[in-house]
Amino acid sequence: MVESRPLRGRSEQLGLALSAVRRVRAIGASGVVLVTGAPGIGKTAVLTEICRQAAVQRFRVARTKCDEIEQVSPGAPVIAVLRSGRDPLISADDYEHLGQIEPLVLADRIATYLEKAAAGGPLVIAIDDLHWADRVSLFLLRSLIPRLIGLPVLWVLTSRDRRLKSELESVDHVRFHHLLLTPLTAPDLAAMAHDRLGGVPSRHTQQLLAASDGNPFLAVQIIDGIARTAGREDAVPAEFTAAIHRRLSELDPTVRWAVELLAVAGRTLPIDDLVLLQPELTPELVGDAILSGLVAETSGTLSFRHDLIRETVSATIAGRTVRGLHLRIADHLLRVAGQELLAASHVKAATIPGDLGSALILTSAAEQLTSISPDDASELAMLAFGTLRPSHDRWFEIGQRCLAVLARTQHVAETLTVADQLLARADEAEVIGQVETVTARALWLGGQVAELTERCDRVLRLPGLAPAIAARLTAARALAQTRMIPGAQAADGARMALATAQAAGDQEAITLALQACGEAAKNEGRHRASLGYFRDLRPLLGTSYLAEEIIALQLLDRYEHAQTLLDQARKDSESAVEGALPALAYAQVWQDFNLGRLDDAGAGALGLIELGRQLGTSVHALEAMMIHAAVQLARGEYEAADRQVEAAARLTDADENIREPAVPLMRGWLAATRGDLDRATAILRPLLDTAAESRTFWPWWPGWTAVFYEIGTAAGEPKFARQAVDLAELGAERNPGVISFEGLALNLRGRAEDDLALVARSAEVLASSPRPALLAVGAASYGRALLAAGDRDAGMVQLDRAWDVYHAMGSLDSRNGVEATMRRAGARRTKWDQSTARPATGWEALTDAEQRVAKLIAAGHTNKSAASTLGISINTVGTHLRAVFAKLGIQSRVQLANTLNAHPGETREPDG
């Protein structure tokens, strides 16, 4: 629910905010209060009062603020919340262990800490000045607020920027209040002056207050100035800026320098640090700075009384002086404090062309940020690279380091820009090869495989290339070719690249070649070989390719083993698996989809799509959108599926080879469900013609061959149908002993040849498949074959079995097709009448998956422990929980527990 309106009276503004506090306290619902307005309008004062009154009502209050200069420290303001206040939410040891963590893992850990804290009582998380928040902090907020829905957590946020409003108000089941602070009226200003001056303000004072434009802070400055000068109104400048200038001019030069340094620092500074930076600064002079009214002292640190003062002081400092102060602070942060990232933020503000020291600091900071905040790392790397001229003797060295950062952060355009500048000034084949090797990984991750192949070919033609470099480029080219040429040809090239890499003894080349072999084997449908190659990568790269292992296990029907790896990955939050989290989420979605958990698959896909939006990446989001569209199709939601597929088609600028064949496959399936069989076969025929030599594993996924066959049969296209049979049999040949492949091959051959015994055998085999959908395909096709053979009773047994499986999965489209066959044969079933569409609201509206989540959360589980218990992802739990709240019309986990207790016949799951 959203409440957003400009409120002129501060009492009215506070009243609305405090009602949110009371609501959180009363029912345990989540809430967000966003306070926006111009600088000095009173945002911090409102936040402070909300925190004060929340503390009175026994909330634990955690408060922090964003800092203009600390934007280079990813997530710092949100992380600081955990240790703020008199009663920190976590221990110092836990806080220390957060360190520099990849954002996804950091979000998960912070959410776990906050869930635990909220279980003990209501929380207020207050973050001031979000207009200065860094990218990671904003990502964390977007992740944490929906993750904590239904818990007694009130977020109080302030910002000059109102653009946050659209993001925050769209979070489901979080009551959102937007307080737009507007200027004070003339009577408000007069009342303030009366209270401070002890009498009705004179006409001149009212004119000065009018110059404040209703800004409370500026008005207080004017009133305080009048009070300090004992009513000599002519001593108060008409403009706030002039007042600040005047105070600065009255300061001792050493004190003024300290104030200016504090302004450039952009944050609070310990007095001891100021003294180190300016030894002439005595305690008496520090006292003079405080007496000026510009700065305040708190626990041995100095800070400005308000950001407006700091900004005004900053504006008075000459550009050359500002640069000198930034560099002096950076030097201090490096030598004394050892804070390289903060030093980089000052260097960033002061760097000039040709400054080697600045370039080195920026490069080092970019390297630190590579896995934590890729966008920030890329920005610093480009700035560092541009700092030095090509004539500088260390330009190439710095350039190579910046290139490595850009490649690792997948900023393909910037990678190519830097690489081409380096290559334009490189003559030695080995150096050129080193640059192109780094560039190759960025091009692969960015899906630009044609460019990757072309660049590798160009360098491999150079004479004098070192064997290790040649092996790397050969392997990179082989990897690109897995998306460009027929599968068998790509596999041959990958194996040759691996032999070359092993002969050269170069680990990076071996890694690239093993990856190429794994991809090529998967594209050929040789899944045991693919699994072997990806497992060979484990000693070289740790768990970076764990998701590929899991998918290979799924394709081999080894779902229990796949689940074991998924469960271990969720527990192992300290390992290198962190960087593979989006890929693992993708593997989990496939796990759920294949095992017939369509609700979990749909929820997980939505979570992965949202994750891609937050991270700004599209590779796994594209696949997730395809899976979500498949779930929608299974449910009969054709229009929604169509919108999802078309959105996916627009999602990425990767090469067409990367986007295919997922999007065309789904378009063809959609066309068939709408009865446009000519269009369906036209879309799918090119894919089926080349499926045996595919550039991706999608056509080999068990189940697609059945879709192809049924479309070809319905369209009266016998050649099309025969190709589907041939593809199914080739899959079985390449994966002997895998039930899903063998059962489908038998099934389609039996149907194509009208061989009842073969169809019966396929149903028997598929009954052992771990994939419910394939079991149902076997039973349904056998049941129809029995009906055609005149054995109605036996046919109904099989069709009933298929109906039950489809119904349990929630695959309504297939279920309804089976039901229609049975009705035409004269069957009637009570269960059909009882399987009407779920109501839109109430307990009966919840799917089985949503009920499982609801019971665990009502029993006191956190999102993380519920995910672990159910063997699904945390994102999936969150998606289910939002659906539960919507269908039950509740807003808190307390209300969920009460609803569940009141529901007859339902018991809560035990803790554990």
From TrEMBL:
Please indicate which superkingdom the organism of origin belongs to. Answer: Bacteria
Protein name per its UniProtKB record: Regulatory LuxR family protein
Occurrences of domain HTH luxR-type (ranges):
839-904
Cite the SMART domains for this sequence.
AAA, HTH_LUXR
**CDD domains, per database record:** LuxR_C_like
Q: Which UniProt keywords apply?
A: ATP-binding, Nucleotide-binding
Q: Which PROSITE patterns match?
A: HTH_LUXR_2
Any matching Pfam family:
AAA_16
